[in-house]
Amino acid sequence: MTVSSGSTTKPAYGGASASGSGPGEERPVPRPARRGGRASTSDPGAARTRILLAAEEVFASKGYAGATTQQIARLAGVQKRMLFYYFPSKNDLYTHVLDGFLAGIRDIHTRFHQSPGPAGLQQIVAGIIRFVAAHPDPVRILLREIMDDGPHLRRIVDRSVGPLFADGIAETRRNMSQGVFRVEDPMHTLVNIGGLTMFYLLILPLLRQVWDRDPLAPETVEERIEATTRFVLQGMLSGDSTVPRSG
Q1: CA–CA separation, 122 and 125 (whole Å)
Q2: Are residues 50 and 36 in contact, defined by beta-carbon separation less than 8 angstroms?
Q3: What is the 3-state secondary structure (H, E, C) of the chain?
Q4: Pick from 184, 154, 152, 147: which is nearest to 169 by CA?
Q5: Per residue in 215-240, pLDDT tens?
Q6: Taking the chain, what is the end-to-end CA distance rounded to the nearest angstrom?
Q7: Which of 14, 15, 44, 46 is CA-nearest to residue 33?
Q8: Are 164 and 105 in contact (CB under 8 A)?
Q9: 20: CB partners within 8 A, 6+ apart
Q10: How many Å is the maximal CA-CA distance in the chain?
């Protein structure tokens, strides 16, 4: 995620769908500038948001061990004492970044998991892709923690990822028992969906070198959603099920 001196927009973690938006699309909210001056003490909420956004970028680029609270405070445009006012330690700040991101994924699953099999799956895949495309830095942080078998992984599994997997497995088995999905180990289904929706974000630097377009441009993201959902549904549906129309 590139630091900008101007304001851009970024969907809020776990935000509700905007009016007229597609499934899982998050409502954009103003994203405060992170450089070009210190955060206003008259708006403590803005200062906290700046710190979290800066932490995403620093943790994503340097990892937990390489990141420092001084770097994060500088990028956020605040004094270190203000950072520690909101987050008592680097560990606490890191935890908030991961928990916020995972809460957004949980929100997507909660909103769509009661939909009928193919439609619900299509909506979840679309929602996850839109969400992670809007939050590429937390994706890198989470996947680095997983790949490194990091010290926070056990807590993440116990509090967030484990329950998500348990719910996803139960839901997949229900659709298999009803003849909607092909019968196989549900864990393969979840791993395939996770890989197809999140690996795209890991190879952004490569895609920018070999592709003649912006991989995070809205139209490209929507094409990615279409290609991924079609691939997933064709592979998972039983012979008696049909792929729902997109939109």
Answers
A1: 5
A2: no
A3: CCCCCCCEEEECCCCCCCCCCCCCCCCEEEECCCCCCCCCCCCHHHHHHHHHHHHHHHHHHHHHHHCCHHHHHHHHCCCHHHHHHHCCCHHHHHHHHHHHHHHHHHHHHHHHCCCCHHHHHHHHHHHHHHHHHHCHHHHHHHHHHHHCCCCCHHHHHHHHHHHHHHHHHHHHHHHHHCCCECCCCHHHHHHHHHHHHHHHHHCHHHHHHHCCCCCCCHHHHHHHHHHHHHHHHHHHECCCCCCCCCC
A4: 184
A5: 999 999 999 999 999 999 888 886 55
A6: 29
A7: 46
A8: yes
A9: none
A10: 61
Q: Is the pTM of this model over 0.85?
A: no
Q: Can you list the domains of the chain with their CATH numbers?
A: 1-104 (1.10.10.60), 111-247 (1.10.357.10)
Cβ atoms of 187 and 169 closer than 8 Å: yes
Convert the pLDDT of each residue in 171-189 to its tens digit.
889 889 989 899 999 999 9
Q: Does the structure show a pLDDT above 80 at 28?
A: no
**What would the two tokens of residue 217 be?**
């441009």
Kindly list the distances between the CA atom of residue 200 and the CA atoms of 87, 143, 217, in Å, as whole numbers in the listed order. Answer: 31, 12, 13
